[in-house]
Structures are given as structure tokens and as C-alpha cells.
Amino acid sequence: GADLDAGGGPTTRHPEGHGVSVADLRGPTTPAPGGRVRRYALTARQTTVQVGGRTVEAWGYNGQVPGPPITAEQGDLIEVTLRNDDIARGVTLHWHGYDVPAGEDGAPGVTQDAVRPGGEFVYRFRADQVGTYWYHTHQASDVGVKMGLYGTLVVGPPAKGLDLTVPVHTFGGTTVTGVAGTPQAAPGTPVRLRLVNTDSVPHRFTLAGAAYRLVAVDGGDLSGPGELREVELRLPAGGRYDLAFTMPDAAVALHLDGGEGLRLGGGEPQPAPKGWPELDITRYGTPATTPFGPDSRFDRSFTLVLDRAIALVDGVPRYAFTVNGRALPNVPTQLVREGDLVELTVANRGFDTHPWHLHGHRVLVLERDGRRVSGSPLWLDTFDVRPGEVWRVAFRANNPGEWMNHCHNLAHAAQGMSLHLRYD
Ligand code: C2O
Ligand code: CU
């Protein structure tokens, strides 16, 4: 079948009725005043990883899994030269959660051609958004990301004390934190943990041994986050949570899916706590002013019903993951104009969780299941729509081009749960 998630084709399509190709909507070539140029070279190639004493086939950038961490300060220019040694299906770099110009977005068949073995593509964008993000291939991404073609992107000054990025990934059934050994921090040291879920399913975290705050979600700081204890955090596929706490005298344990995750400091490992309630992030933190809200007048409204159904795939009816009863490429493109305030309602009628992800835009969550957000404003690039749930979100159409929006369970996206959003 076709690489539905990627568009798959070797040709770049052009938005109709536009003199400009999406591929021409490129980023600036210089940093902001006072900024620096951060140059990286990433070469995709086959490699192996060690998981739980086993050697597992993998694909990595520069032979590393995760790929090299990309870091920058606000205002820097990030310039990444992507090459492909031997990944026959081709690769790209997509900057997950980072609102880069469309031509830098790494969506093959939409914004560029996939980089084939021997090929090269140079990405350039300004580090405007501070926070925790990640990058991954977008070509045949259900296979490529699973195999290891991903890494982290962190913008901003490192937090004082211990600042640890924790990209969680599953290889051959074993979930690993991407952190080697037991990091040490003296009592009283501030600690920031940047959790990144690079898998296609949600992960559950509990932090035992310290009170902490959830200070950022999907890179965006929360307003007035209070202290948390004895709660479980559920991190959607593709999502990021930044946790902050002060190192206590004894060890702190971050448990992952009820098992061993990461331990900080010495001492006895603590058993994974059971029965802690899940934190509802739509009720956490303090309300703050936002540029628009649930009662705004919207220029466009779209409704997406997500399900699993028989739909045409390559002209043949078969089981697919569907948007309004259709599978990509038969899902109608959403058309917006620059400046529009866009309302998006996403309902899940199926039995699987669908982490809905937008490229190029962050959404403000308005309502989950008819209930307004009562805590901190939440600006997300991926929101987890569980079976039976309805989310109402909104965004400003302020990043012209053509964008892929899709379920970040990448197997679902590959089986049709994907669409394009295009500026008229
Ligand atoms: Cu993180 Cu279109 O993906
Ligand atoms: Cu899905």
C-alpha cells in the first residue's frame, strides 16, 4: 500500500490557486539580533541498540538512538543538514510541536521530497519558542520513528541545578527512558525533568519521594501550577511534560507504566505506587488571560469524528482508521485563510485512543467533554482524545502553507487517520 501518512510520493504538490509553492515557504537564514547559528549534521543510518541485554535492530541519526540532542537559546538560528546513508524508504526531519515555516516542516509529499540514500536537505528555522520539543522522521513514520529516527529539541537556558531530558521509547516491547545510570543531585538542588513520549501510545508516570509541579505541557509554561503528590500523570503519544522539584534528602523515583523508570539519588529503590488518581490537566493550575476563548466568534469551525471503519484505501474497501468516515487521501482538506480564528471539535467514536496532532500550530483547549478548562490555559500540539471523548480547541491561522494533521498513533495515521490543512 501507499505510505498514507507521508503522502508517499516523490513529487511536491503545490497548493492550488497559489503562485507560491509550499516548498518555497522557507525559514530565515540569519539568527535574531544577538542570537547565534547552531549547526547540526544528522545522517540517518541503520544501527543497533542494546535493550535489557538484547541487541535490537534500529535506525538512528548519526548511529545514535535517540539522535543527537538539539539545543538552542531563544533567537538562535537552528541549521540542520540531514543526510541519508542507507534508509531505503527515505527520511525527513519534522520538528514536532515547533511552529516552523511550512517549507521546513519535513512532511514528505507536502513540503519536500523525502531524502533518499545519498541525498541531503538543509533545514533552517529560528528558535522562537522556548521549551521541550522533539524531532522525528516523517517518511513512513510509523516504521521510521519506531525504529529510532527521533531526538529531542530543547530551547532556552538550561534550568539551574539538574536539567534532564527523558525521551521515552519502546524497543521490542521494552520501554526505556533514554537516560543512562542513576543521575545524582545533592539535597536542595533544583531538578527539572523533561518527559518526552516518542511512542504511539500514552505512558503513565508517577513521581515518588518528592512533591513536584508540572510546569510545562507541550513546551508551554502553565500558569500557577500547584504542588502535586500521589497523582499519576498520563502523557499522550508525542506529548511533553516538564516536572520541577527540589531534590529531597532521599532518593526520588520516576515510575513508568507501573514499573521501574528512572531513579535520582542513592538509596533504596521505592516500589511503584498503586492506585494514585490521574491528574486532570484541564483542571490544574490557575486561569489566565488568553487571546481568545470558548465564547469567541470563530471564522471557521471544523468537526472531526474519529473512528475505525471500512473505507476506501487505494480504491479498495478495507478496515481503516477514519476521519468523518474516510481515510487519507480521501479526507477533505481543511481550508483556512491567514488570520482566521479556527474552532476544531474532535470526537472519538471508536475504541482506541487518538492523540490528535496539528503541524505548524498550537491549539488552546476550550472544552473537554463539554466542560471548560478550569485551570491553567493549555496550549497543546497533541491532545489525547480517548474513546467516547469530545475535545473543542481553537487556534489562530497564522502560519501559511499546507500542513498535515493526524493521529499521533502513527500506525493509525498510516492507516488513514490523517488530513491536510491548507491556506487558501
Ligand atoms: Cu510528530 Cu506529523 O508528527
Ligand atoms: Cu489514532
TrEMBL record:
UniProt keywords, alphabetically: Copper, Membrane, Metal-binding, Oxidoreductase, Transmembrane, Transmembrane helix
Q: Where is the Plastocyanin-like domain?
A: 45-158, 319-422
Q: What is this protein called?
A: Multicopper oxidase
Q: Which residues form the signal peptide?
A: none
Give the Gene Ontology MF terms in alphabetical order: copper ion binding; oxidoreductase activity
Keyword Oxidoreductase listed? The answer is: yes
Residue numbers spanned by region Disordered? 8-28
Q: Which residues of the full protein are shown?
A: 181 to 604 of 616
